[in-house]
Amino acid sequence: MVTFVIRPIAPYDFSLMVRRLKGVKHEAFRFEENTNTLSRTIRTKNSVYLAQIRSVGSTEAPELEVRLSGTPPPGPEESSELRTKLTRMLSATVNLKPFYEHMASIGPEMQALTGRFRGLHLLTEADLFECMCKTIIGQQLNLSFASELTRRLMRTAAEPFLADGVEYPVFPSPEDVAALEYEQLQELQFSRRKAEYVIDWARKMKDGTVDGDSLYEKSDDQIMTELLPLRGIGRWTVECFLLFGLGRTNLLPAADIGVRNALKKLYGLDVQPSEQDVRTLGASWSPWSSYVTLYLWESLHEWEGEKL
Protein backbone atom coordinates (compact mmCIF):
# COMPACT_ATOMS: atom_id res chain seq x y z
CA MET A 1 0.00 0.00 0.00
CA VAL A 2 1.17 3.54 -0.83
CA THR A 3 0.03 6.51 1.27
CA PHE A 4 0.43 10.23 0.64
CA VAL A 5 -1.30 13.55 1.44
CA ILE A 6 -2.81 16.03 -1.00
CA ARG A 7 -3.18 19.59 0.30
CA PRO A 8 -5.83 21.40 -1.77
CA ILE A 9 -6.04 25.17 -1.96
CA ALA A 10 -8.51 26.50 0.65
CA PRO A 11 -11.40 26.89 0.94
CA TYR A 12 -12.05 23.25 0.15
CA ASP A 13 -15.04 21.41 1.64
CA PHE A 14 -14.59 17.70 0.99
CA SER A 15 -17.88 16.88 2.75
CA LEU A 16 -19.86 18.88 0.15
CA MET A 17 -18.19 16.93 -2.62
CA VAL A 18 -19.03 13.62 -0.94
CA ARG A 19 -22.62 14.77 -0.42
CA ARG A 20 -22.97 15.54 -4.12
CA LEU A 21 -21.57 12.12 -5.07
CA LYS A 22 -24.09 10.46 -2.78
CA GLY A 23 -26.89 12.50 -4.28
CA VAL A 24 -26.11 11.69 -7.89
CA LYS A 25 -25.36 8.07 -6.92
CA HIS A 26 -22.09 8.07 -8.82
CA GLU A 27 -21.40 4.61 -10.22
CA ALA A 28 -17.67 4.43 -9.50
CA PHE A 29 -17.50 5.79 -5.94
CA ARG A 30 -18.26 4.25 -2.58
CA PHE A 31 -18.35 6.10 0.71
CA GLU A 32 -17.47 4.00 3.74
CA GLU A 33 -19.26 5.63 6.67
CA ASN A 34 -17.33 3.77 9.37
CA THR A 35 -13.99 5.14 8.19
CA ASN A 36 -15.27 8.35 6.53
CA THR A 37 -13.45 7.24 3.38
CA LEU A 38 -14.30 7.81 -0.28
CA SER A 39 -13.14 4.97 -2.51
CA ARG A 40 -12.95 4.32 -6.23
CA THR A 41 -10.80 2.38 -8.68
CA ILE A 42 -8.44 4.22 -11.01
CA ARG A 43 -6.58 3.03 -14.08
CA THR A 44 -2.99 3.70 -15.00
CA LYS A 45 -1.43 2.76 -18.31
CA ASN A 46 -0.66 -0.71 -16.98
CA SER A 47 -3.01 -1.61 -14.17
CA VAL A 48 -5.99 -0.80 -11.92
CA TYR A 49 -5.68 0.42 -8.33
CA LEU A 50 -8.02 1.25 -5.49
CA ALA A 51 -7.76 4.82 -4.20
CA GLN A 52 -9.17 5.52 -0.74
CA ILE A 53 -9.47 9.21 0.16
CA ARG A 54 -10.14 10.62 3.62
CA SER A 55 -10.28 14.22 4.79
CA VAL A 56 -7.91 14.81 7.71
CA GLY A 57 -8.09 18.61 7.61
CA SER A 58 -10.76 21.32 7.52
CA THR A 59 -12.33 23.63 4.94
CA GLU A 60 -9.79 26.35 5.69
CA ALA A 61 -6.82 24.00 6.17
CA PRO A 62 -7.65 21.06 3.90
CA GLU A 63 -5.66 17.83 3.83
CA LEU A 64 -6.65 14.66 2.04
CA GLU A 65 -5.03 11.38 3.01
CA VAL A 66 -4.84 8.97 0.07
CA ARG A 67 -4.16 5.25 0.24
CA LEU A 68 -3.42 3.29 -2.94
CA SER A 69 -3.65 -0.47 -3.05
CA GLY A 70 -3.23 -3.08 -5.74
CA THR A 71 -1.32 -6.23 -6.67
CA PRO A 72 1.50 -5.58 -7.02
CA PRO A 73 1.54 -2.24 -5.17
CA PRO A 74 2.17 0.80 -7.40
CA GLY A 75 5.85 1.60 -7.95
CA PRO A 76 7.29 5.13 -7.99
CA GLU A 77 6.28 5.86 -11.59
CA GLU A 78 2.71 4.65 -11.19
CA SER A 79 2.40 6.36 -7.79
CA SER A 80 3.35 9.63 -9.44
CA GLU A 81 0.86 9.06 -12.26
CA LEU A 82 -1.89 8.26 -9.76
CA ARG A 83 -1.09 11.31 -7.65
CA THR A 84 -1.38 13.50 -10.74
CA LYS A 85 -4.68 11.88 -11.71
CA LEU A 86 -6.13 12.28 -8.21
CA THR A 87 -4.96 15.88 -7.79
CA ARG A 88 -6.62 16.71 -11.10
CA MET A 89 -9.77 14.69 -10.32
CA LEU A 90 -10.17 16.42 -6.95
CA SER A 91 -9.55 19.93 -8.39
CA ALA A 92 -7.03 20.37 -5.59
CA THR A 93 -5.07 23.14 -7.36
CA VAL A 94 -8.10 25.33 -8.14
CA ASN A 95 -8.19 28.51 -6.04
CA LEU A 96 -11.83 29.54 -5.53
CA LYS A 97 -11.18 32.79 -3.65
CA PRO A 98 -11.18 34.89 -6.87
CA PHE A 99 -14.43 33.15 -7.86
CA TYR A 100 -16.16 34.19 -4.64
CA GLU A 101 -14.87 37.74 -4.93
CA HIS A 102 -16.13 37.95 -8.50
CA MET A 103 -19.58 36.60 -7.63
CA ALA A 104 -19.93 39.04 -4.72
CA SER A 105 -19.46 41.88 -7.20
CA ILE A 106 -22.30 40.64 -9.43
CA GLY A 107 -25.12 40.83 -6.92
CA PRO A 108 -26.71 39.47 -3.73
CA GLU A 109 -28.25 36.43 -5.43
CA MET A 110 -24.91 35.12 -6.67
CA GLN A 111 -23.21 36.00 -3.41
CA ALA A 112 -25.84 34.00 -1.51
CA LEU A 113 -25.52 31.05 -3.91
CA THR A 114 -21.76 30.83 -3.61
CA GLY A 115 -21.85 31.36 0.13
CA ARG A 116 -24.22 28.43 0.50
CA PHE A 117 -21.77 26.04 -1.17
CA ARG A 118 -18.48 27.62 -0.16
CA GLY A 119 -15.62 25.18 -0.67
CA LEU A 120 -17.42 22.93 -3.15
CA HIS A 121 -15.03 21.98 -5.96
CA LEU A 122 -15.57 20.13 -9.21
CA LEU A 123 -14.89 16.41 -8.96
CA THR A 124 -13.94 15.28 -12.45
CA GLU A 125 -14.01 11.77 -13.84
CA ALA A 126 -10.88 9.66 -13.39
CA ASP A 127 -9.95 9.77 -17.07
CA LEU A 128 -11.14 11.26 -20.34
CA PHE A 129 -12.23 7.98 -21.90
CA GLU A 130 -14.57 7.29 -18.98
CA CYS A 131 -15.91 10.83 -19.06
CA MET A 132 -16.87 10.79 -22.74
CA CYS A 133 -18.47 7.35 -22.50
CA LYS A 134 -20.61 8.48 -19.58
CA THR A 135 -21.50 11.76 -21.27
CA ILE A 136 -22.65 9.94 -24.40
CA ILE A 137 -24.64 7.50 -22.29
CA GLY A 138 -26.30 10.42 -20.49
CA GLN A 139 -27.50 12.16 -23.65
CA GLN A 140 -31.30 12.69 -23.44
CA LEU A 141 -31.65 10.30 -20.50
CA ASN A 142 -32.59 10.92 -16.90
CA LEU A 143 -29.76 10.63 -14.39
CA SER A 144 -31.02 7.41 -12.82
CA PHE A 145 -31.28 5.39 -16.05
CA ALA A 146 -28.00 6.77 -17.40
CA SER A 147 -26.28 5.62 -14.20
CA GLU A 148 -27.84 2.18 -14.56
CA LEU A 149 -26.60 1.86 -18.14
CA THR A 150 -23.11 2.84 -16.99
CA ARG A 151 -23.20 0.16 -14.29
CA ARG A 152 -24.25 -2.43 -16.86
CA LEU A 153 -21.36 -1.42 -19.12
CA MET A 154 -18.91 -1.73 -16.22
CA ARG A 155 -20.20 -5.17 -15.22
CA THR A 156 -20.12 -6.39 -18.82
CA ALA A 157 -16.71 -5.10 -19.91
CA ALA A 158 -14.51 -5.05 -16.78
CA GLU A 159 -13.77 -7.33 -13.85
CA PRO A 160 -14.35 -5.75 -10.42
CA PHE A 161 -11.44 -4.94 -8.10
CA LEU A 162 -11.38 -7.17 -5.01
CA ALA A 163 -10.00 -5.73 -1.76
CA ASP A 164 -10.51 -7.29 1.69
CA GLY A 165 -13.43 -9.31 0.39
CA VAL A 166 -15.19 -6.27 -1.09
CA GLU A 167 -15.77 -5.81 -4.83
CA TYR A 168 -15.24 -2.31 -6.23
CA PRO A 169 -16.53 -1.50 -9.74
CA VAL A 170 -13.99 -0.79 -12.47
CA PHE A 171 -14.63 1.32 -15.54
CA PRO A 172 -13.46 -0.58 -18.64
CA SER A 173 -10.51 0.51 -20.74
CA PRO A 174 -10.81 1.66 -24.37
CA GLU A 175 -9.54 -1.79 -25.39
CA ASP A 176 -12.26 -3.48 -23.32
CA VAL A 177 -15.07 -1.46 -24.89
CA ALA A 178 -13.61 -1.51 -28.39
CA ALA A 179 -13.79 -5.30 -28.32
CA LEU A 180 -17.57 -5.26 -27.81
CA GLU A 181 -20.14 -5.57 -30.57
CA TYR A 182 -22.98 -3.07 -30.85
CA GLU A 183 -25.51 -5.83 -30.19
CA GLN A 184 -23.98 -6.55 -26.79
CA LEU A 185 -24.79 -3.04 -25.61
CA GLN A 186 -28.24 -3.20 -27.18
CA GLU A 187 -28.88 -6.24 -24.99
CA LEU A 188 -28.15 -3.98 -22.00
CA GLN A 189 -30.90 -1.56 -23.21
CA PHE A 190 -28.59 0.84 -24.99
CA SER A 191 -30.21 2.27 -28.12
CA ARG A 192 -28.51 1.19 -31.34
CA ARG A 193 -27.09 4.66 -31.93
CA LYS A 194 -25.85 5.05 -28.36
CA ALA A 195 -24.17 1.64 -28.58
CA GLU A 196 -22.46 2.71 -31.79
CA TYR A 197 -21.33 6.06 -30.38
CA VAL A 198 -19.80 4.53 -27.23
CA ILE A 199 -18.00 1.69 -29.01
CA ASP A 200 -16.84 3.93 -31.86
CA TRP A 201 -15.41 6.38 -29.29
CA ALA A 202 -13.52 3.50 -27.67
CA ARG A 203 -12.12 2.38 -31.01
CA LYS A 204 -10.92 5.91 -31.81
CA MET A 205 -9.17 6.10 -28.44
CA LYS A 206 -7.66 2.65 -28.92
CA ASP A 207 -6.27 3.29 -32.41
CA GLY A 208 -4.97 6.77 -31.56
CA THR A 209 -7.39 8.74 -33.72
CA VAL A 210 -8.09 10.66 -30.51
CA ASP A 211 -5.07 11.22 -28.29
CA GLY A 212 -6.49 11.70 -24.81
CA ASP A 213 -3.25 12.90 -23.24
CA SER A 214 -2.86 15.70 -25.79
CA LEU A 215 -6.29 17.13 -24.96
CA TYR A 216 -5.07 18.39 -21.59
CA GLU A 217 -2.80 20.84 -23.40
CA LYS A 218 -5.40 22.15 -25.86
CA SER A 219 -7.77 25.08 -25.54
CA ASP A 220 -11.53 24.66 -25.21
CA ASP A 221 -11.99 25.84 -28.81
CA GLN A 222 -9.35 23.43 -30.12
CA ILE A 223 -11.02 20.52 -28.35
CA MET A 224 -14.43 21.57 -29.65
CA THR A 225 -13.04 21.65 -33.20
CA GLU A 226 -11.43 18.22 -32.82
CA LEU A 227 -14.35 16.38 -31.23
CA LEU A 228 -17.46 17.87 -32.87
CA PRO A 229 -16.94 15.99 -36.18
CA LEU A 230 -17.16 12.63 -34.38
CA ARG A 231 -20.47 10.77 -34.57
CA GLY A 232 -22.66 11.19 -31.52
CA ILE A 233 -20.72 14.14 -30.12
CA GLY A 234 -22.47 17.53 -30.20
CA ARG A 235 -21.83 20.84 -28.47
CA TRP A 236 -23.54 19.87 -25.19
CA THR A 237 -21.50 16.65 -25.07
CA VAL A 238 -18.20 18.49 -25.56
CA GLU A 239 -19.18 21.11 -22.97
CA CYS A 240 -19.83 18.39 -20.40
CA PHE A 241 -16.60 16.67 -21.39
CA LEU A 242 -14.64 19.89 -20.84
CA LEU A 243 -16.36 20.40 -17.52
CA PHE A 244 -16.30 16.92 -15.99
CA GLY A 245 -13.32 15.48 -17.84
CA LEU A 246 -10.88 18.36 -18.00
CA GLY A 247 -12.21 20.50 -15.16
CA ARG A 248 -12.24 23.65 -17.27
CA THR A 249 -13.57 26.56 -15.21
CA ASN A 250 -15.41 28.63 -17.81
CA LEU A 251 -18.00 26.32 -19.41
CA LEU A 252 -21.63 27.39 -19.65
CA PRO A 253 -24.05 24.72 -20.90
CA ALA A 254 -26.77 27.33 -21.41
CA ALA A 255 -29.26 24.88 -22.92
CA ASP A 256 -29.17 22.66 -19.83
CA ILE A 257 -32.61 22.39 -18.22
CA GLY A 258 -31.16 22.18 -14.72
CA VAL A 259 -29.26 25.45 -15.12
CA ARG A 260 -32.35 27.20 -16.46
CA ASN A 261 -34.58 25.88 -13.68
CA ALA A 262 -32.05 26.88 -11.03
CA LEU A 263 -31.82 30.42 -12.39
CA LYS A 264 -35.60 30.69 -12.42
CA LYS A 265 -35.62 29.70 -8.76
CA LEU A 266 -32.63 31.86 -7.77
CA TYR A 267 -34.03 35.07 -9.27
CA GLY A 268 -37.72 34.34 -8.62
CA LEU A 269 -38.59 34.47 -12.32
CA ASP A 270 -42.11 33.72 -13.59
CA VAL A 271 -40.86 31.69 -16.55
CA GLN A 272 -37.82 29.57 -17.26
CA PRO A 273 -35.09 31.60 -18.99
CA SER A 274 -34.23 30.64 -22.55
CA GLU A 275 -30.82 29.44 -23.67
CA GLN A 276 -30.08 32.93 -24.97
CA ASP A 277 -31.24 34.45 -21.67
CA VAL A 278 -28.76 32.23 -19.85
CA ARG A 279 -25.92 33.23 -22.18
CA THR A 280 -26.76 36.91 -21.69
CA LEU A 281 -26.96 36.58 -17.91
CA GLY A 282 -23.91 34.32 -17.82
CA ALA A 283 -21.68 36.74 -19.70
CA SER A 284 -20.80 38.30 -16.35
CA TRP A 285 -19.78 34.95 -14.82
CA SER A 286 -16.62 34.54 -16.90
CA PRO A 287 -14.06 33.11 -16.17
CA TRP A 288 -15.99 31.03 -13.61
CA SER A 289 -19.05 29.83 -15.54
CA SER A 290 -18.33 26.16 -14.74
CA TYR A 291 -18.48 26.79 -11.02
CA VAL A 292 -21.64 28.88 -11.28
CA THR A 293 -23.13 25.98 -13.25
CA LEU A 294 -22.06 23.48 -10.58
CA TYR A 295 -23.51 25.58 -7.77
CA LEU A 296 -26.76 26.15 -9.68
CA TRP A 297 -27.17 22.40 -10.18
CA GLU A 298 -26.46 21.82 -6.52
CA SER A 299 -29.02 24.44 -5.48
CA LEU A 300 -31.83 22.33 -6.95
CA HIS A 301 -31.17 19.40 -4.64
CA GLU A 302 -31.20 18.39 -1.03
CA TRP A 303 -28.79 15.49 -0.83
CA GLU A 304 -28.87 14.80 2.93
CA GLY A 305 -29.70 11.22 3.72
CA GLU A 306 -28.70 9.87 0.30
CA LYS A 307 -26.52 6.76 0.25
CA LEU A 308 -23.64 6.08 -2.10
UniProtKB/TrEMBL annotation:
Keyword annotations of the record: DNA damage, DNA repair
Enumerate the catalysed reactions.
Hydrolysis of alkylated DNA, releasing 3-methyladenine, 3-methylguanine, 7-methylguanine and 7-methyladenine
Boundaries of every HhH-GPD domain copy: 137-306
Q: Which InterPro entries match?
A: AlkA_N_sf (IPR037046), Alkylbase_DNA_Glycosylase/TA (IPR051912), DNA_glycosylase (IPR011257), HhH-GPD_domain (IPR003265), HhH_base_excis_C (IPR023170)
Asked whether the keyword Cell membrane is assigned, the reply is: no
Q: Which residues form the signal peptide?
A: none
Which CDD domains does the record match to this protein?
Answer: ENDO3c
The broad enzyme category this protein falls into is hydrolase
A single Pfam family, by name?
A: HhH-GPD
Enzyme Commission number: 3.2.2.21
| Keyword Magnesium appears in the UniProt entry | no
Q: What is this protein called?
A: DNA-3-methyladenine glycosylase II
